[in-house]
């Protein structure tokens, strides 16, 4: 019933559209209702603005897919199945995250504490899920990460590096 291209566009923009709907309903209630519903409406506006900000960041992070390989994320473990290589990276052992320019596009390089590196094309199928993974890294600046992704560097760029480990 819906053309495949239109369905794909709607899927890509679904989170910002949901946030916009939440803001619209919240504003309607905040400006026309009485009593407690006014405050619920303003809370919905605030929640919609927060969700919208995250949705726009996710939208900027997505490279459209269609690249080589498939990325899956399962409980702090990233798995990349590529046509010529692949591997697994545990986020608890992640020491550094780099953005590497490559002839076919940019690569994410996840380097473990052991020195083992996993290169994932930024446009691999399912690579959009990496945004939530990277955003959970302590001390990462998602704005800088998104800027680097939209303006690829000339050489390797370290996006995040873990601090020294201490015994408690």
Question: Which features does this protein show?
Answer:
168 residues; alpha+beta; PH-domain like; 4-stranded mixed beta sheet; 4-stranded antiparallel beta sheet; 5 helices
Short note summarizing the structure:
By secondary structure, the protein is of the alpha+beta class.
Question: What does the secondary structure layout of this molecule look like, with pairings?
Answer:
Layout: H1 4-12, H2 14-32, H3 36-61, E1 67-73, E2 77-81, E3 86-90, E4 94-102, E5 105-112, E6 117-121, E7 124-125, H4 130-135, H5 142-150, E8 157-161
Parallel strand pairs: 1-7
Antiparallel strand pairs: 1-2, 2-3, 4-5, 4-8, 5-6
Helix pairs in contact: 2-3
Overview of this protein structure:
The protein is an alpha+beta fold. It folds into two domains: 4-61; 67-161, PH-domain like, CATH 2.30.29. It contains five helices and eight strands, in the order αααβββββββααβ. The protein has helices at residues 4-12, 14-32, 36-61, 130-135, 142-150; strands spanning 67-73, 77-81, 86-90, 94-102, 105-112, 117-121, 124-125, 157-161. The strands form two sheets. A four-stranded mixed sheet has the order 3-2-1-7, with no helix packed on it. Strands 6-5-4-8 form a four-stranded antiparallel sheet, with helices on one face. The longest helix is centred in the first third of the chain and has 26 residues, at 36-61.
Total domain count: 2
Separation of the first and last Cα atoms: 59 Å
What shape does the CA trace take?
globular
- Helices, by number, come to 5
- Point out poorly predicted stretches: none
Give the SSE order as H and E letters. Answer: HHHEEEEEEEHHE
Instruction: Kindly estimate the percentage of residues that lie in beta strands according to DSSP.
Output: 25-35%
The CATH topology of the largest domain turns out to be PH-domain like
Structural class of the secondary elements?
A: alpha+beta
Kindly report the average pLDDT value: 86
CATH class wording of the largest domain: Mainly Beta
């Amino acid at each position: 019933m819906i053309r495949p291209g239109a369905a794909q566009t709607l899927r890509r923009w679904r989170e910002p559209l949901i946030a916009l709907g939440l803001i619209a309903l919240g504003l309607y209630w905040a400006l026309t209702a009485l009593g407690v519903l006014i405050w619920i409406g303003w809370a919905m506006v605030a929640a919609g603005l927060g969700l919208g900000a995250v949705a726009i960041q996710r939208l900027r992070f997505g490279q459209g897919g269609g690249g080589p390989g498939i990325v899956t994320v399962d409980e702090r473990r990233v798995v990349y199945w590529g046509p010529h290589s692949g591997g697994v990276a545990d986020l608890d052992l992640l020491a550094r995250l780099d953005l590497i320019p490559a002839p076919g596009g940019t690569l994410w390089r996840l380097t473990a504490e052991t020195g083992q590196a996993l290169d994932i094309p930024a446009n691999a199928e399912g690579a959009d899920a990496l945004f939530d993974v990277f955003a959970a890294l302590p001390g990462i600046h998602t704005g800088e990460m998104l800027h680097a992704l939209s303006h690829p560097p000339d050489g390797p760029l370290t996006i995040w590096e873990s601090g020294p480990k201490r015994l408690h």
